[in-house]
Amino acid sequence: MNEFTLILSVLVALVVGFIIGRFTSRAGDAAKLQSAYNKSRKELEQVKRDLGDHFTGSAALLEQLDEQYQRLYQYMAEQNQKLCGENGSFKHEQIDTTGAVDEYGTDVQPLDYSGEPSGLLRDQQKTG
């Protein structure tokens, strides 16, 4: 009976030790997970703040750009009126865009050469 009690005590101690070990390791894992969760949450909040600051800065820059374009447009309109008088518009000359037409009704391309052979492409032997 002494041996039986000893074996039974060892088995009970193993089971109790196993159960205690499982609970303490889960508590440690839970603490690690909670710590990682809190860290990730803080990083997410920081990214949200940074993104908000970025959009606020971008909106301010775009507003400045809009104001500068309005001033530029106002300046150009004033200069146009000073230079062109009361009607305030530039006068454009009409350019004749109709080119020469051959007998078939198609556009004739302008000649880029004189019509006379220059001899530049001819093989010439120099006598000297």
UniProtKB/TrEMBL annotation:
It is a single-pass membrane protein. It comes from Pseudaeromonas paramecii. The keyword Disulfide bond does not apply. Keywords: Cell cycle, Cell division, Cell inner membrane, Cell membrane, Cell shape, Coiled coil, Membrane, Transmembrane, Transmembrane helix. Its main location: membrane. Residues 30-82 form a coiled coil. This is Z-ring associated protein G. Residues 106-128 are annotated as: Disordered. The keyword Translocase does not apply.
